[in-house]
Design goal:
The chain is mainly α and about 500 residues long. The chain has 3 domains: about 160 residues, Rossmann fold (3-Layer(aba) Sandwich); about 100 residues, Glutamyl-tRNA Synthetase, domain 2 (Orthogonal Bundle); about 110 residues, Arc Repressor Mutant, subunit A (Orthogonal Bundle). Helices cover about 45% and strands about 10% of the residues. Strand 5 and strand 6 form a beta hairpin. About 30% of the residues are buried. The structure holds one RNA strand of 75 nucleotides.
Length: about 500
RNA sequence: GGCCCCAUGGUCAAGCGGCUAAGACGGCGCCCUCUCAAGGCGCAAUCACGAGUUCGAUUCUCGUUGGGGUCACCA
């Protein structure tokens, strides 16, 4: 059987990693078996429609590398793929159920429904009282003729229980009295989400329904619909939720449901923070799923590899926490393994901000690759190139490199004439500086430490002495070293 | 509150009756080293609790506790 899965988001304008992971698993499930992955936009709620939200969905999927075979933008044989464009399609199905006595018109007003809730015993949650379930033919006709607004409700079983099977959670049983006479068609003529969902999944030939575990307890309602129509129930795969971790000002950590409150769990928020789409996909693939067999213990996956390795048996039941630290590590792994062209392309915008010459791109790639986990860290790492001021001279007092202000003055005075005429080449500079240390019969660090600090003006730099000199260029390096030497001498004498 | 689901280190997690309870992130230590990384080596840290079943339970059953979800003319 050809597997057909679908991603069915609502255009609310925000796509967080939880939704994205659902889409990913739907995609992987289909592709693992050469199946078809469909995008369907569920916009039956006109009031909540957000302008431009659909484009965000397309853009997210495209950027993430999850491509749909059928959808509003790419077409397909089961369209239209936007529910609002399918509006006329649903009501006949509902009316068919009315005709068969499996559903009924309900004329109850909003006010009556509200008062039902208010008059309920304290604390109790009360559903619809099925007031219109057994209206007489006369009453129904009268209401219809007078134009009273109505909804169509499905008759749900009044007793017993419903059981269904889920590939992740096993058998789920729910008492039928938990099931309300659900609304199929709203007053505005639009179908409810539940109804449209079932009609669309069936008419689009969806074989595997994959969604978050928040649907676990409402699935019997969907099944009641499939049964009423005599349709096959799809295979269900419910996914554990992803939780977010937030830390407040006091340092208290709370774990809670992923939402906008966590701010940066939006896909494009993460992209803006410097995370790579491939790394995000790789990371969330492993949140709630564990590879097995030849892929066991593997952490880094391309999309192709995910498709091969993905297996529903590896999906876990318990919710997981989105861990930025691990994402960050993984992003760094992607950067380390990047080819030069990609690295430079990603880094270029940041290099341009610092007016870095293309001559240094190769050097920077080598220096930066092991040192950044996100490209957005580059300006911070290279700040010393643009910023140089009256830094603290105590930096020259460094026990580990056997340096002091005095040895630094000595080293810098000896280094200046050498650097002035040295070929400005990383290896050559390194050789010359080491030679200087050898001539003076001191450890390399006794000359390297002061030169690097004098030129950079900070203790921590990416790369070493020669690399700092290369990035600054001869002119700027000499200027800084001389300035620093003067200040050093002044501080010793004064 | 009713109903449903879940429960292995701080986090992601392997395990599917018998193991010194994998691996990864993070943490810590050592090595390397002109700083910071990277890399190498190592350490600490987990079966929520209580009853059963069994020769034997992390694993099976029940209960307790804790967490999550869900109860709309929202999706």
């Amino acid at each position: 059987m050809l597997i057909r899965t679908r991603f069915a988001p609502s255009p609310t304008g925000f796509m967080h990693v939880g939704n994205l992971r659902t889409a990913l698993y739907e995609y992987l499930t289909a592709k693992h078996d050469n199946g078809v992955f469909i995008l369907r936009i569920e916009d039956t709620d006109q009031e909540r429609y957000v302008e431009g939200a659909t484009d965000i969905i397309y853009k997210t999927l495209e950027t993430a590398g999850i491509s749909h075979d059928e959808g509003p933008d790419v077409g397909g044989d089961y369209g239209p793929y936007i529910q609002s464009e399918r509006k006329g399609l649903y009501k006949p199905y509902a009316e068919q159920l009315v005709k068969e006595g499996k559903a009924y018109y309900c004329f109850c007003s909003k006010e009556r429904l509200d008062s039902l809730k208010q008059n309920a015993p304290e604390g109790a949650v009360v559903g619809y009282d099925r007031h219109c379930r057994d209206l007489s033919e006369d009453e129904i006709r009268k209401n219809l003729e007078s134009g009273t607004p109505y909804v169509i409700r499905q008759k749900m079983p009044l007793s017993g229980e419903s059981t269904y099977h889920d590939l992740v959670y096993g058998d789920i049983t729910i008492p039928n009295d938990e099931l309300d006479d659900q609304i199929l068609i709203k007053t505005d003529g639009f179908p409810t989400y539940n109804f449209a969902n079932v009609i669309d999944d069936h008419t689009m030939g969806i074989t595997h329904v994959i969604r978050g575990s928040e649907y676990l307890s409402s699935t019997p309602k969907y099944n009641a619909l499939y049964e009423a129509f005599g349709w096959d129930i799809p295979t269900y795969i419910h996914l554990p939720l992803i939780n977010g971790k937030s830390v407040d000002d006091e340092g208290n950590v709370t774990i809670s449901k992923l939402s906008k409150r966590h701010g940066s769990t939006g896909f494009f928020d993460l992209i803006e923070e410097g995370f790579l789409p491939e790394a995000i996909i790789n990371y969330i693939a492993l949140l709630g799923w564990c590879p097995a067999g030849e892929y066991e213990n593997r952490e880094i996956f391309t999309m192709e590899e995910l498709i091969k390795a993905f297996d529903i048996n590896g999906i876990s039941k318990s919710p997981s926490v989105f861990d930025y630290d691990k994402l960050e590590w993984m992003n760094g792994e992607y950067i380390k393994n990047m080819d030069s062209e990609s690295f430079i392309r990603n880094a270029k915008p940041f290099f341009d901000e610092l007016d870095i010459s293309a001559d240094n791109y190769g050097l920077l790639e080598e220096i930066l690759k092991p040192r950044i986990t996100r490209f957005t860290e580059i300006p911070g790492k290279l700040a010393f190139i643009k910023e140089f001021g009256e830094f603290d001279l105590e930096l020259f007092e460094h026990k580990k490199s056997k340096s002091s202000k005095e040895t630094s003055v000595d080293a810098l005075e000896a280094a200046i004439p050498i650097l002035e005429s040295a070929p400005w080449d990383r290896d050559k500079l390194n050789d010359l500086i080491k030679q200087l240390a050898a001539d003076k019969e001191v450890k390399n660090s006794v000359v390297m430490w002061p030169i690097r600090i004098a030129a950079a003006g900070v203790a921590v730099t990416p790369g070493g002495c020669a690399e700092v000199l290369m990035l600054l260029g001869r002119e700027e390096s000499m200027k800084r070293i001389r300035t620093t030497l003067d200040r050093l001498k002044g501080s010793i004498n004064g």
